[in-house]
Design a protein that fits this description.
The chain has 212 residues and is α+β, with helices and mostly antiparallel strands. The chain has a single domain, classed as Electron Transport, Fmn-binding Protein, Chain A (Pnp Oxidase, Chain A, Roll), CATH 2.30.110. It has 5 helices and 12 strands. The strands form 3 sheets. It has a 7-stranded antiparallel beta sheet with strand order 3-2-6-9-10-5-4. A hairpin with a 2-residue loop joins strand 4 and strand 5. The model has no long low-confidence stretch (mean pLDDT 94).
């Protein structure tokens, strides 16, 4: 096996290091984060850093990049206290990736990338109409990460919209039914293929599969 030390990684060319380190955590969620500025101007950005923080109360986290340059998503969330998290499906993966381009603040990624903003239940942030699983989040906490200047935003789940075929009777989600995609590294998009589901694990009882 290859063995890479911290010194090795620090010595790599910048792009090589970005590609390598961004892939180390494995497959990551592909989400479009929808926001609006205080004046209503919309913004849309691809994120792969969403994480589950708890179910009671339901909380999700987003890690934003350092704010040493303008970050429109972060600025909008701070201004309005809200954002939407929208799953990316294979049918519009190219449009979702295009939101990573550095568009000027005055130009909405919804328009530039061919996606549709949807406002629901008087929530101030726009959802992606093309997404079949969307979550409305309200900002609760902002935790600066001193090690690298990133910021962890903690959001309370206020709304969930999902296609009926995605919701199983036990509350689990069939993301394959939505043709969800995940991200590898910075620019690789993949379909997640179902492999197995297992019952709640208890010591001494072995592993039991759950039938679909």
């Amino acid at each position: 096996m290859h063995h890479l030390t911290r010194a090795d990684i620090q010595g790599f060319d910048k792009i090589y290091r970005l590609n390598l380190v961004n892939a180390l955590s494995g497959y990551k969620p592909a989400n479009l984060i929808g926001t609006a500025a205080a004046d209503g101007a919309t913004n849309l950005a691809i994120f792969s850093s969403a994480l589950h923080l708890g179910s009671d109360p339901p909380l999700l986290g987003l890690v934003t990049r350092p704010t040493t340059v303008p970050r429109h998503t972060y600025e909008n969330i701070r201004a309005t206290g809200c954002c939407t998290l929208n799953h990316v499906h294979a049918g519009f993966v190219d449009k979702a990736h295009y939101t990573s381009a550095n568009f000027p603040r005055a130009e909405s990624e919804f328009d530039a990338c061919g996606l549709t903003p949807a406002y629901r239940d008087e929530f101030p942030a726009p959802y992606v109409a093309e997404s079949q699983l969307s979550v409305g989040l309200r900002l609760l906490e902002e935790l600066p990460i001193q090690a690298n200047g990133t910021v962890l935003l903690i959001g309370a789940v206020e709304h969930v919209y999902l296609a009926p075929e995605a919701l199983r009777p036990d509350g689990t989600l069939d993301l394959a039914a939505l043709d969800d995609v995940c991200i590898s590294g910075l620019d690789g998009y993949l379909r997640a293929e179902p492999l197995a589901r297992f019952a709640y694990a208890r010591a001494g009882q072995g592993v039991k599969k759950v039938s679909e």
